[in-house]
Amino acid sequence: MPAKGDTWDRERAALRTTAQRSNTPCWICRQPIDWNAAPRTPRSFSADHVTPTSLGGDPLRRANLKPAHYGCNSSRGNTTRGQFPNSRKW
């Protein structure tokens, strides 16, 4: 569950600004983020916790936040990137 309040809003906005300026892709699937997509749509921006807060990740530590698609972030849930399955078996 994301942190609440002004601090979360500032951290999320700072991550979005930095990622958008450098055109950083989704850290989960490595595809471009649609910066103009409506919020909470699959290809839109979301701030993802690298180590999920439910597993002890700091919800407000900038080093624990990475840009992701809303859809990728939602699908990953509270797993770590290594636990997240590939979209297909290679």
TrEMBL record:
Annotated segments matching region Disordered: 67-90
Source organism, top-level taxon: Bacteria
Extent of Polar residues compositional bias: 72-90
Keywords: Endonuclease, Hydrolase, Nuclease
InterPro entries: HNH (IPR002711)
HNH domain sequence ranges: 26-78
GO terms, molecular function: endonuclease activity; nucleic acid binding; zinc ion binding
Protein name: HNH endonuclease
Native source organism of the sequence: Leucobacter chromiisoli
